[in-house]
Write a structure and sequence with these properties.
7 helices; 6-stranded parallel β-sheet; alpha/beta; Rossmann fold; about 35% helix; about 210 residues
Length: about 210
């Protein structure tokens, strides 16, 4: 069985139901609530992305132990160690998920749905910090209208997502990118589930 930590969610039940429908008995989902996304999921301080928004506090390093603890607690429910430890998230939580793999080897997979890879300094960080797991897997997804926003910060998301994919592939890290229909604020739950499944697409248990 694989454990999936869904970052930024208060309830794992909807994700568990959808994962069970696609791959019965394959996944154990656990929610990881977050009180302040801009504070807890941003890897370092950065200016606000919106005119009336708040600056990003960059407290992800302080929040990371909470994610580690959630994974360890979820693992206690299993009779044997999980086959994969997956960290998954949408938007800023998707950025956090992938950043997590540069900080710890506990998680070996990241499912990043519409991730905020426009975040200032992200590509520089990834260039300087290889993923820590021995055999990492990454799945990315993006709405096909997301980079068409008029917001000059957020419009860089396509470049960031494709640049991330290309860099990971150059390091021989399995990385998929799937384009979904729509903008950023559409169908987040289902997009996240599909991105989790993309990590293992083609395996017998998902056929």
């Amino acid at each position: 069985m694989d454990i999936v930590i869904i970052v930024g969610e208060n309830d794992a039940a909807p994700y568990q139901e959808k994962l069970d429908s696609a791959a019965p008995g394959r996944f154990l989902a656990a929610a990881l609530p977050c009180g302040d996304w801009d504070r807890d999921l941003s890897p370092w301080p950065a200016p606000a992305a919106f005119k009336k928004g708040r600056d990003f506090a960059g407290e992800a390093p302080s929040f990371l132990p909470t994610a580690v603890s959630a994974m360890e607690k979820a693992g206690e429910a299993l009779a044997s160690p999980p086959a994969h430890r997956i960290v998954a998230g949408y938007s800023l939580a998707g950025l956090f998920a992938l950043w997590t793999l540069t900080r710890t080897s506990l998680f070996d997979c990241a499912a990043c749905a519409s991730p905020s890879l426009w975040f200032p300094g992200w590509m520089e960080w990834l260039n300087a910090h290889p993923l820590k797991p021995e055999r990492p897997r990454v799945a990315l997804s993006l709405g096909d209208r997301e980079e068409k926003t008029r917001n000059p910060v957020l419009s860089a998301v396509g470049e960031g997502v494709r640049g991330t994919r290309d860099l990971l592939l150059s390091r021989d890290v399995p990385c998929t990118l799937r384009m979904d229909a729509g903008g950023h604020f559409e169908d987040a739950e289902n997009r996240t589930v599909r991105t989790i499944l993309d990590l293992f697409r083609g395996e017998e248990s998902l056929s």
